[in-house]
Amino acid sequence: AQSVSQHNHHVILSEAASLELGCNYSYGGTVNLFWYVQYPGQHLQLLLKYFSGDPLVKGIKGFEAEFIKSKFSFNLRKPSVQWSDTAEYFCATGGYNKLIFGAGTRLAVHP
Amino acid sequence: DAGVIQSPRHEVTEMGQEVTLRCKLISGHNSLFWYRQTMMRGLELLIYFNNNVPIDDSGMPEDRFSAKMPNASFSTLKIQPSEPRDSAVYFCASSQGDTQYFGPGTRLTVL
User: Fold this and answer.
1) Which of A36, A98, A101 sits opposite B48 (nearest CB)?
2) Which of A32, B32, B46, B71 is the 20 to 30 A CA-CA neighbour of A100?
3) A45: chain B residues, CB-CB within 8 Å
4) Distance between terminal CA atoms of chain A?
């Protein structure tokens, strides 16, 4: 069965620091990968997704993720975080329709 | 586009009462997902429908939970009778293809 592992459960950064959140997936055939963000008290919003093609994917709000097939990884990055990036971040994988989510990483950015 | 609409946004009820959560899909989407989010278990898929047909209900906790999709744009999730351990945020998501779009959620508190 497909699964997603997010290594960091809590990350604390200062503003302007660089961010990298780890995500590893188990291979289950078609590789569709997603990063969602959930701001405090809000619903999940899609940050970016990878289906095929260029392994470096750019999303909204300055986020990007790199698909590395040999490492089964899809890490999320941002060169300089802001206080407003404080949120929980979920990596997900899945085939048609059904998504498997990781446990999430809570990011706190201090001014 | 109004996005996925859920109602109510907050529900407080007493143990034993029936609870009905509602979801309206994004126009044109043909898949509907119900998730539950708690601190302990994270984001769990309860059930999903494709073209009004339930495809996978293996995540439904027990017989107290039931979901219906009476038409292509609307779904309900019912809990009868409700229990305090059902307290959670319930999200609905819809998709047309591989990307799911989430609603704002219903925060359920069962006293």
Assistant:
1) A98
2) B71
3) 102
4) 41
Q: A44-76: buried (b, 16+ CB within 10 Å) or exposed (e) per residue?
A: bebbbbbeeeeeebebeeebbbbbeeeeebbbb
- To test the contact with chain B by mutation, choose from A4, A32, A43 the residue with the greatest count of B C-beta atoms within 10 A, namely A43
B9 neighbors B90 (Cβ within 8 angstroms) = no
**What is the residue-level pLDDT of chain A in tens, covering all 111 positions?**
778 999 889 999 999 999 999 999 987 677 889 999 999 988 899 999 999 899 999 999 999 999 999 999 999 999 999 999 999 999 999 866 678 889 999 999 998
* Beta-carbon contacts of residue A43 (< 8 Å; ≥ 6 apart): B91, B102, B103, B104, B105
